[in-house]
Amino acid sequence: MDQFLRTFFDQTVNGLVIGNIYALIAVGLAIIFGVGNLINFAHGSVYMIGAYVGWLCVVRLGLPLPVAFVVVAVLCGLLGIVIERFGLRKLQNSARIAPLLATIGISFMLDQLVQILFTPKPQSFPNPLPQTRFAIGGGSVGAIDILIAVIGISAAIFLYLFLRYTKFGWALRATAQDRDAALQMGVDVNAVNRTAFALAAILGGIAGMLVGMYFQTVYPTMSFQAGLKGFAANLLGGLGNIPGAVVGGLLLGLIESYGVAAFGSSYRNLFAFVILLGVLVFRPNGLFSSRRSLPSEPMTGSFIRYGRVVRLPRWLIGVLIAVAIALPLVLKNPYPLQVLTNAWLLGMIALSVTLVTGTAGQTALGQAGFVAIGAYTSALLVLRLHFPFELALICAGLFAAALGTLLVLPAFRLRAHYVAIATIGIGEIVSQVILNWQAVTNGPLGLTRIPPPTFFGYQTFLAQDVYWYSLALLLLVMLLQWRLVKSALGRIWRAIREDDVAAQAYGINLNRYKALAFAVSAFIAGLSGAFTAHMYTYINNETFGTSTSILALTMAILGGMGNIFGAVVGALALTILPELSRDLAEYRYLLYGLVLVLLIRFRPQGLLGTE
């Protein structure tokens, strides 16, 4: 019993410590959402940069710890101001999805810059505090535990006093309550936005440094998971609710700590994503909000400014297809064929995104989850049940459609930012299940020796064979999607995209047609994942990460949302451009993030226009 109480106490302390970190992240997100009605996906990157700045100050420069905290606060605060001023201010009058996507692009850029500067390898961050632990009851606490608690409580007190007793705090609260009314009363809303981003970035940067000290390591990929956990904590308390964000962060930390003790550390991230999805479905306004109805829809339809669609003549499309088919007869080097094969497969994922997001208007940011379902389904059917590849490929697409739609089904009642967050959470849940379901997926070791694609018994070992096979699959998917978009079903999807309330008033069953859009989208993504798995002959839980989802979204926006041929053009452009110069390979994701930000700012309708 004494051992149980000691373990329970230690897990509680650990949960509260981590919960304080999540609270700092969540409070920053709550401030930005309250003022700008914006989900800031770049916040996790600011948190990661704070960890690296703290590591530089303490480990490399040997600065005293208080000075290091000041440097982190100043630099992260300035970074928050730069993000608001140059990345988001010009998008204030755009639909809400535009700045949301811009923060995703900014996050990509910041993460890649850190990887370029410090390499992807984790860096050791020795805790500079005394290692002495103080006995309390049946357990103990360390100096770092106390420091995190003090900083968390101090930050909460500072924010309370700042918002309640300062003029700038009043202005911030007024802007959060009614931006237009605050503007009419003479409030400088740009200054308020700038302050909100600076405060949020300071809190996020300090949280990152504390986590680096607590776990004694920093690494570039720590940003995404932290950002999602901040969202989960924020949703627990209610988006924009600062006290709720604090309580939500503490609750999430405790749940995660107890869950790790019961099931193991590999389940750590799964708890946050399940909680995130559960709160979205059953209590989207948070545990501490009395409102029962969903918030108004700020992202109905597409954010695209419609312009003239570039329509290619049919004869030109036929020529381009003929050239694509004939390329292997001219190119003898297998490398460019492999690059183009990757472009065709990514083009299929971009097509799946442009269908559900561009045509049906449902913001989908977890498409990699459907790709992974298709990949594992086909690989397992061939490896363990000895299905022929052709049958496994079709089964993979169908299973991805069925399971993907089932997973997304609870999110159909959600709107606005909530749909985007829910789809990301679903994608991450799929990844975590793959990681932990070792009896089926082989866990982190993945599946090896997956047979290469076959065509009715013919082995496709040569690069040109795989190229033709993937191109044929892409052309079939394009034809299927074109027929659907031009049908009555496609017109219904576009009606839902433009105004779902009006569509429902005309008798359209929203859930039914949303389910059809996600089913077709997941089917196409599953086909791409299945073919990719057999082409690589190896997959694991990290093969299809969130970067795949964002890359496919960027390709769809580049070509033109809802534009079938544009999705393929976007895939070709973003696959081939980094390969034209090997020096650009290291900057691939930096380029993707920059392209996404510039497109949203200057040409959201894409290269070929929006259908």
Layout of SSEs?
Elements: H1 2-36, H2 43-60, H3 65-88, H4 97-118, E1 123-124, E2 133-136, E3 139-142, H5 143-165, H6 167-177, H7 179-184, H8 189-215, E4 217-218, H9 222-237, H10 242-263, H11 268-282, H12 314-330, H13 334-359, H14 367-384, H15 389-408, H16 417-436, H17 438-441, E5 454-455, E6 458-459, H18 463-486, H19 488-498, H20 500-505, H21 510-536, H22 546-559, H23 564-580, H24 588-602
Antiparallel strand pairs: 1-4, 2-3, 5-6
Helix pairs in contact: 1-5, 1-6, 1-8, 1-9, 1-10, 2-3, 2-4, 2-8, 2-9, 3-8, 4-24, 5-6, 5-8, 6-8, 9-10, 9-11, 10-11, 11-16, 12-18, 13-18, 13-21, 13-22, 13-23, 14-15, 14-16, 14-21, 15-21, 19-21, 22-23, 22-24
Keywords for this entry:
611 residues; mainly alpha; ABC transporter involved in vitamin B12 uptake, BtuC; 2 domains; two-stranded antiparallel ribbon; 6 strands
Write a compact overview of the structure shown.
This protein is 72% helix and 3% strand. The protein has 611 residues and is mainly alpha-helical. It folds into 2 domains: 2-122 and 138-264, ABC transporter involved in vitamin B12 uptake, BtuC (Orthogonal Bundle); 314-602, ABC transporter involved in vitamin B12 uptake, BtuC (Orthogonal Bundle).
